[in-house]
Write a structure and sequence with these properties.
- It comes from Amycolatopsis magusensis.
- This protein is α/β, with parallel strands linked by helices.
- Helices cover 48% and strands 22% of the residues.
- The protein is built from 23 helices and 21 strands.
- Strands 13-14-16-17-18-19-20-21 form an 8-stranded mixed barrel, surrounded by 6 helices.
- Strand 1 and strand 2 form a beta hairpin.
- The longest helix is centred in the first third of the chain and has 36 residues.
- The radius of gyration is 47 Å and the shape is elongated.
């Protein structure tokens, strides 16, 4: 029999099965007894299962209340019907005040609201078990709260429907830390400006946009910053860098400029819009002027000068690498031109420079492939121009594309690329080898050879060893060689040249100094240089090329008189014609070389001259 309190559904099931069992052939129990037996079975089954279910409910309730995650249970429309204390704390509200609040309205932005609405819709209309997103919620203090939200479905107790549940994880501190680390990764810690990585990203974006208007890139570098850093300390140097960053920001404030500190004392400014070179140059000049104004640090008024390279071009087309290269070249030219100024990138000049630099980069291969040869310039006595005094040796590059290149075409490039030492060694080696052959062929009629030492070779500490090795290898006395150097080489701060010249003179080599004025001449006395010959060069000789000039003649005459007082023999280079040679001779110049006798000569030409000289 049914008991009071039995659920109607349970009674109905028991009666159904009782009828079935009663109708079964061979069963003698009455239906009422079978029904009672089944109800007892059901009660026992419920007794077994209810504690499990009730325990699960209690555990869920405890977890819901104590969870650090914010949890909100919602109805079918996504309206909150219950929220736990953690969610209330996150939002700065009592949890019961969240009832009746649509889940999407918890977001602080329209985008966040749309994200939550989309998640609810996808859970309702698709076979999704979870929907996760990072969004910003708003709390009672209107501070942004970054959270990870998870939307899921919970089944109903008594129906097959499921209802939305919102779970919220507070990641605000983690997000702020990530943002701080991201800022540190992309910004310079000293000035607060974007760093080189951030600038590179910005530049790539600017050139990739293919947008209208112009791009302007300014590279700015502080001149002589090492003086400030080493002289006044790195701490004050840091303050100067901050000041430079602030002044750049002030000048470019109204121009939507992206300003970055690249490295050391280098800065970059990127502008995009309707620009022209004149406007950009005016802004850069304003920056340079601002930087020279002293700023006081602990009563020290410090102003700096800066050099700037400027590139202005169409925003569309080209690449970031091309823009960077152009700015670097313009900055380099500004430095070379004397610093404390700006230089605008010139595409035509750059094209010429590229050709020159390509030439300089191939010097090593040309030397290895035998493209260099000796070229000679005879020096004769001006009183007896048929008498050979000395032969000056130089280098010529027989370039397969550009033809014959003289030393002035490639020496500066060799100095830049570090190839001056190999070229100088080759020049010395080949010159002494040629001298040895002439001495063997012509005996005493063979002239001395004079080698003009390139600056880098003159200052090389191994110069003496190199000369001695080549003299010994060719079985030549040191007196067969003249070595010519100039004032800048003598004044090398390392002092190697003076010491080397003294040792070479002791070996017996004849030393020649190129002189362009009285200051060069006085180096011999000041440094007690073991020089026996001087060669006049430059304007002091050129001034008398066309006609007699009273001032130029007086100047050159004074140089010659002073050289004679010092017991020196005087020659001149760059003598153009017979009349020029005569004017120099009258003023006391003993020997000369230049176009008046021969602009240049090959080995066979020199041998012919030696032969004629020997015959006379």
């Amino acid at each position: 029999m049914p008991r009071p309190g039995d659920a109607p559904g349970l009674v109905e099931i028991a009666r159904k099965w009782a009828a079935e069992l009663a109708d079964t052939e061979g069963v003698s129990l009455p239906p009422e007894e079978i029904e009672g037996s089944l109800l007892r079975f059901a009660h026992e089954l419920r007794a077994e299962t209810d504690p499990v279910r009730e325990g699960a409910k209690r555990r869920f309730a405890a977890l819901y209340s104590a969870s650090p995650l914010g949890i909100a249970l919602a109805d079918q429309d996504g309206v909150i019907v219950e929220a736990n204390p953690a969610l209330g704390r996150m939002l700065g509200r009592r949890s019961d005040t969240l009832r009746g609040t649509p889940i999407p309205s918890l977001a602080s932005t329209d985008k966040g609201s749309a994200t939550l609405a989309t998640g609810l819709a996808e859970l309702d209309g698709a076979d999704l078990s979870l929907y996760r997103q990072l969004i910003v919620l708003s709390n009672a203090e209107d501070d942004p709260l970054w959270v990870n939200v998870t939307l899921s479905q919970l089944p109903s107790d008594c129906t097959e429907r499921s209802y939305p549940v919102l779970m919220v994880e507070d990641v605000n501190d983690l997000h702020l830390l990530q943002e701080r680390l991201r800022h540190q990764t992309l910004h310079d810690s000293l000035t607060g400006l974007p760093n080189a990585l951030s600038f590179s990203t910005k530049l790539e974006s600017a050139v990739a946009a293919d947008s209208p208007g112009q791009l302007a890139l300014v590279y700015l570098d502080i001149d002589g910053f090492k003086v400030i850093n080493d002289g006044l300390g790195a701490g004050l140097g840091d303050q100067v860098l901050r000041t430079v960053g602030r002044k750049l920001g002030t000048v470019f404030a109204e121009h939507n400029a992206f300003i970055a500190r690249l490295s050391g004392d280098g800065f970059a400014v990127l502008l995009h819009g309707e620009l022209n070179a004149t406007e950009v140059i005016a802004l850069v000049q304003q920056v340079l002027d601002e930087l020279t104004e002293p700023v006081y640090y602990d009563e020290l008024g410090i102003g700096v000068s800066a050099s700037a390279g400027i590139v202005v071009r169409k925003a569309a087309g080209g690449s970031a690498d091309e823009l960077l290269r152009a700015a670097e070249i313009a900055l380099h030219r500004a430095k070379e031109a004397g610093k404390a100024q700006w230089m605008l990138f010139d595409p035509e000049l750059d094209a010429r420079d590229r050709s020159r630099y390509r030439l300089g980069a191939t010097i090593a291969g040309a030397l290895e492939n035998g493209e260099f040869s000796l070229v000679f310039q005879p020096t004769v006595k001006l009183a007896k121009q048929d008498e050979l005094a000395v032969v000056n040796a130089g280098l010529r590059w027989n370039h397969p594309e550009f033809g014959n290149l003289e030393s002035e075409d490639f020496y500066p490039l060799a100095a830049t690329t570090g190839m001056m030492i190999p070229l100088g060694r080759w020049l010395l080696t080949e010159s002494l080898s040629a001298t040895a052959r002439w001495r063997e062929k012509f005996g005493g009629a063979a002239p001395e050879v004079c080698v003009r030492l390139p600056y880098r070779l003159a200052t090389d500490p191994d110069l003496v060893l190199l000369v001695k090795e080549e003299l010994d290898r060719n079985d030549l006395p040191a007196g067969a060689l003249r070595l010519c150097t100039d004032g800048p080489s003598v004044l090398d701060p390392n002092g190697e040249v003076i010491d080397s010249l003294a040792v070479l003179a002791d070996l017996g080599a004849h030393l020649v100094l190129a002189v362009s004025g009285s200051a060069d001449l006085e180096l011999i006395r000041t440094h007690q240089l073991p020089v026996r010959h001087v060669i006049l060069t430059g304007e002091v000789v050129d001034a008398l090329a066309v006609h007699d000039d009273e001032v130029a003649s007086r100047h050159l005459g004074q140089l010659v008189s002073r050289a004679k007082e010092m017991g020196l023999r005087i020659g001149a280079e760059g003598v153009r014609d017979a009349a020029h040679a005569e004017r120099l001779r009258r003023l006391g110049v003993l020997a000369g070389r230049g176009p008046f006798i021969a602009q240049s000569a090959t080995k066979s030409d020199v041998e012919e001259l030696i032969d004629r000289h020997a015959a006379r």
